[in-house]
Amino acid sequence: MRNFKDLQIWKLAYEFNIEIYKILPTLPERELRNIFDQLQRASTSIPLNIAEGSRAESGRKFFNYLHYAYASSAEVEVLLMMCSEFGYISNDEFKALWQRLDELNAKLYSFMKAVFKDKVIHDDNREGRFRQPVPFQQRVFSYGSHEEKGVTEAGEEISEETIRRLAIHGEGRGKEKLFF
After folding, report:
1. pTM above 0.85, yes or no
2. Is residue 128 situated within a structural domain?
3. d(Cα 149, Cα 162) in Å, to the nearest integer?
């Protein structure tokens, strides 16, 4: 079992959540049941999912919790953009939070990749044989925005539209196995 307090990504997520809580009182009262609640829940979800996942029985389950945290960080990204656009936070506050979130996303993504390679493959090794790892979806981070490119086991590139279709509907030719 992992101790979540020893994970750098948990520490970053926890500190980021504290920073988000500091700006929540600056939001207008009319946003109390909208952006305020959503930002509070999404930012809190990041360290909570990392902590909960750290107690998971398998690497695959841990990876899923990390993915939930990563998805919540995307939600926070959009909410911060809205807060900035509506003038609820200053440009300096936005840049500082955006930079911290971008650092958290990059480290969380790298950690997810490591867990996928080191744990998920080994958890499936029930018969003592390793199966060939499926290339992880590659992302190139650049200050909050990223390009997405998928790769099949055969090394073929997959379009972003196909990635979405596979992720949502599980469609495909049967050979595509992508993990998010």
Report:
1. no
2. no
3. 10
